[in-house]
Amino acid sequence: MDDLWPLAALRVRSGDLELRYMDDADVHALARLAADGVHTPDAMPFTVSWTRGTPTEVARSVLTYQWGARASATPAKWNLELAVVRDGEVLGSQGLGAHDFPVTRTAETGSWLGLRHHGQGIGTRMRLMILHLFFEGFDGLRATTSAFDDNAPSNGVTRRIGYTENGVDVLAREGKPATSRRYVLDRAAWDARPAGLRPEVTLVGVDGAREQLGI
Ligand SMILES: CC(C)(COP(=O)(O)OP(=O)(O)OC[C@H]1O[C@@H](n2cnc3c(N)ncnc32)[C@H](O)[C@@H]1OP(=O)(O)O)[C@@H](O)C(=O)NCCC(=O)NCCS
Q1: Which of 92, 160, 177, 171 shows the shortest CA–CA distance to 126?
Q2: Is residue 1 part of a domain?
Q3: Which residue of 74, 90, 106, 202 could cross-link 13, Cys pair, CB 3.0 to 4.6 Å?
Q4: What is the pLDDT of residue 84?
Q5: Does residue 93 have its Cβ closer than 6 Å to ligand 1?
Q6: 156 C-beta closer than 6 A to ligand 1
Q7: Is residue 136 included in any domain, yes or no?
Q8: What integer pLDDT is reported at residue 2 of this predicted model?
Q9: Distance between Cα 214 and ligand 1 center (Å)
Q10: pLDDT at site 163
Q11: Which atom of ligand 1 is nearest to the CA of 147?
């Protein structure tokens, strides 16, 4: 697949964490992880409530989403979904998606961890790793993200890294209006981030990924 689908070789490494382009074994592990819980039942961090339902329904929704994202990547529109891995265990997913990236140099991140892996600083580390791929590997200019107002950990990760607030949306969430905050991080803000947010990061397979994505 090296020549046909070079994205498959994409890796981002930092300390004991790796973000890697998911093969089927990773997608299966991610689905089983989600079935064990992504957040407490009182919360809903996502616009689409894919984490509700039986464990099997939740797992199947991860499979269809991940297979769909993988199958539909083109230079005009892509959604890279990378497995977050530590010691061979899949802990969650870190996504980076864009429309017309070669023109806009803008992409949106989104992520989740299995509930048992929350609150250990992994969310911050994986965001810094995907931003490293975006700015250093893909020559990105503007990284965007968003989170519902009541999602303290996600807003916490975003604010700490130095994003600027970029407006709010009111979205339908499980039948009720909910405020979602948008954020943007440009190249200058990325370069100005504090010393404590500059881990060593190694990129693998970036040239092939750039070729496939038309960068
Ligand atoms: C969002 C998510 C990826 C964050 O990962 P995490 O590993 O739990 O986050 P971290 O441990 O790196 O915490 C990051 C910061 O969030 C803040 N934070 C975490 N929990 C918090 C809480 N309950 N209240 C307030 N702030 C909180 C802190 O500022 C923390 O920084 P610190 O190290 O200075 O304390 C993870 O919680 C998750 O998967 N949640 C469910 C899915 C989700 O919400 N996805 C994002 C959708 S927008």
Answers
A1: 92
A2: no
A3: 202
A4: 99
A5: no
A6: yes
A7: yes
A8: 77
A9: 33
A10: 98
A11: 48
Q: Is 111 in the pocket of ligand 1 (CB under 6 A)?
A: yes
Ligand 1 geometric centre to CA of 120 (Å): 9
Ligand 1, atom 21, lies closest to the CA of 153
- Does the residue 151 lie in any domain? yes
* Closest to 193 (Cα-Cα) out of 126, 131, 104, 145: 131
Say how many domains are in the chain. Answer: 1
Residues of the chain with pLDDT under 70: none
Instruction: Specify the pLDDT at position 1.
Output: 74
Residue of 84, 83, 107, 88 whose CA lies nearest to 96: 107
Question: Inter-axis angle of helices 152-161 and 122-132, to 10 degrees?
Answer: 50
29 lines ligand 1 (CB under 6 A): no
CB 107 within 8 A of CB 96: yes
CATH code of 82's domain: 3.40.630.30
Q: φ, ψ for residue 41 (rounded to 5)?
A: -65, -25
Say yes or no: CB of residue 94 within 6 Å of ligand 1. no
